[in-house]
């Protein structure tokens, strides 16, 4: 069986579950939400990047609180695009209260309007060996910037935060 995100292959055994992301799956990437608009827009950029790099057809950003779109709004957008299963993926590092209680509660509430659509809340990013590479890459880039060998990254651009304090 093929395991890619757009796999057309389905289980042959009756009752066997399909654990791949398929054409009619919607992915909602959820962050906390912020009063700072630049932070909220970064999730939009990540969702666009995720869609283009993974090939998942239906990907929507959502904020748990403080900003829109909400999980409920993203759920509805996924269904409007043809999703028959929703995968809610927290853009969080640790499995704290938001992952354990808040996001599942908000997803359950959103699903009430779409009773024929199954959903799952996945684990947060957590401990993954690629996180080490990401952090190391960020550290090296920031040190390069403060040495004058690179422009500010998109995270720090215009904040005045990217310098050595002494």
TrEMBL record:
It comes from the Eukaryota. This is Uncharacterized protein. The lineage of its organism: Eukaryota, Viridiplantae, Streptophyta, Embryophyta, Tracheophyta. It comes from Avena sativa.
């Amino acid at each position: 069986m093929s395991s890619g995100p757009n796999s057309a292959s389905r289980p042959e055994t009756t009752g066997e579950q399909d654990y791949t992301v398929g054409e009619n799956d919607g992915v909602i990437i959820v962050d906390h939400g912020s009063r700072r608009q630049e932070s909220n827009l970064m999730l939009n950029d990540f969702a666009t990047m995720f869609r283009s790099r993974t090939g998942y057809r239906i990907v929507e950003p959502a904020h748990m609180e403080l900003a829109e779109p909400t999980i409920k709004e993203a759920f509805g957008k996924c269904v409007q695009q043809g999703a028959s299963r929703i995968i809610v993926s927290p853009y969080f590092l640790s499995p704290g209260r938001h992952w354990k209680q808040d996001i599942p509660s908000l997803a359950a509430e959103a699903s009430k309007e779409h009773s024929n659509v199954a959903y799952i809340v996945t684990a947060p990013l957590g401990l993954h060996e690629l996180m080490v590479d990401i952090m190391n890459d960020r550290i090296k880039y920031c040190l390069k910037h403060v040495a004058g060998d690179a422009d500010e990254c998109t995270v720090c651009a215009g904040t005045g935060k990217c310098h050595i304090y002494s």
